[in-house]
Design goal:
Shape: globular
Number of strands: 16
Helix content: 10-25%
CATH class: Alpha Beta
Distance between the termini: 46 Å
Radius of gyration: 19 Å
Number of domains: 1
Keywords: Dioxygenase, Oxidoreductase
Structural class: alpha+beta
GO molecular function, one term: dioxygenase activity
Strand content: 25-35%
CATH topology: 2,3-Dihydroxybiphenyl 1,2-Dioxygenase, domain 1
Organism: Chitinophaga varians
Protein name: Ring-cleaving dioxygenase
CATH architecture: Roll
Pfam family, one: Glyoxalase
Amino acid sequence: MDQAITGLHHITAISGNAKKNFDFYTKTMGLRFVKKTVNFDDPHTYHFYYGDKTGSPGTILTFFPWQDIMTGRRGTHMATEIGYSVPEGSLDFWLKRLDAANVIYNKPSAKFGEIYLTFLDPDGLKVELTVPEKTDDREPWETADISADNALRGFHHVTLTLEDIQPTADLLVSVFGYQLEKNLANRYRFKSPAGDTANYIDLVEAKGEQRGHVAGGSIHHIAFRMKDDAMQEYYREKIEARGLHATQQLDRKYFRSVYFREPGGVLFELATDTPGFTVDEPVEQLGTHLMLPQQFEPQRAEIEQKLIKLD
C-alpha cells in the first residue's frame, strides 16, 4: 500500500456574517459553492464548503460563519495564511478585481522565485494568490466573469506561524514525509514529494511574537489527505507512537476525520478522500440545497428558519 501523503485535503476557517462570506468566495473569488450544511456541534450555524467542480481534495476551503463572533488575531501557534495557485499572467486581472471590490491588498511581490499577491478577505483572513513555478494543470471552476485564464486552481500552500519551528518541522519530515525545500529568512518551505499540487507547508518562525487567537477571520485547522481508512489508521498510530493524542475516527459525512494538535500548537486533521461531496447530491446540484446530517433532519424546519438567507 502506498502510504505517502500527497498534500492538503482541506482548510477550515471561521468567519462572521454568512452572507458576506458566501458572496465574497463565490462571486469575487469565483469558487464553486460545493456544499451548504450545518455545524455538527451547532446545527443553527452553517458549514460552507468552497472548491472546484466536484470538491476535489486540495481545493476545499470550509467556513463556520458565526454572526457575532469576535475578531481573531494572527500570531504564533496557528495557521495564518492560505495560498491559492493561479495561472501565469493572471495577477493583473486579480488586482483590478480586488480593487473593484474594495478589498485590502498588497502589491505583488516574490518569494521562493514565485510572484504572489496578498489580500484580506471580509473578515481579515490573509489569502495569497501565487503563480507557481510549475504550471498547475488542475481544471478550474469558471464563472460568468472569471475564465480559466484567471480562475483559482486550488491550494498552493498554507503557512503556519510558530514560536519554534523545529518540533513541527520534525513531525512534517519524520512522520509525514515532507522535505525542506527552501529557506528565506525566517520562512521555511516544506514539500511533500509524493504530490504535485497543494503540497507545500510554509513554517514561519516568530520568536517572541504574540500568540494568535482563533476567532473570526482566522484558520481553525488544516487537513491532510488520506486516501482511505487504512492509511488514516496507519498515520494515527504513528502520531500516537510519538506521544501525541489523536482522536478516534469521526464521520464527517463527506470524509472521515482524525484530529490531533501538532507540537507547535496547530490543530491538524487526517481526512479521507472518500466518500466525497457527491454522496448526497449529484455534481450538477452541489451546493444548491441545505444538506443536513441525518440526526438533524427532524429539526429541518426550525433550522432553516434560524439560518441567514443567502439569496
